[in-house]
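Design a sequence for this backbone.
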């Protein structure tokens, strides 16, 4: 019984320690942002693949989503789709040049205050 109680206390302590982890949030337009992009009325994206990629087939396929992912994630999508909650839906991968040169300026012009200036990401400023 004492071993059981000790095991429960250890489990509770480790759960509490995990809950104390602090995450970092990176939003659209900042260096290091990868994830879903809402195209809206933005210019059409330049895509990595012409057809959407889908890992898990479903009866009624949902609308495709546009994602910017790090190099290599699109090639091995089945390994990474869970990180983006996108395994069961069609995905178009947008190219980095389009994201940086077209989408980010368009997004920032329509969302005042969304630009956080230089030095907010992990990249080096020159």
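Sequence:
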């Amino acid at each position: 019984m004492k071993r059981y109680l000790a095991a429960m206390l250890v489990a509770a302590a480790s759960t509490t320690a995990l809950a104390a982890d602090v995450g970092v949030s990176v939003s659209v337009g900042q260096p290091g942002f990868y994830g879903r992009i809402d195209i809206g009325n933005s210019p059409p994206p330049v895509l990595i693949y012409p057809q959407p990629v889908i890992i898990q087939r479903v009866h009624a396929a949902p609308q495709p989503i546009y994602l910017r992912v790090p190099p290599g994630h699109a090639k091995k999508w089945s390994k990474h789709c869970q990180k983006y909650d996108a395994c069961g839906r069609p995905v178009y991968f947008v190219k980095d040049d389009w994201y940086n040169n077209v989408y980010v300026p368009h997004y920032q012009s329509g969302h005042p205050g969304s630009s956080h200036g230089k030095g907010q990401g992990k990249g080096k400023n020159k």
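Residues 34-117 form one domain.
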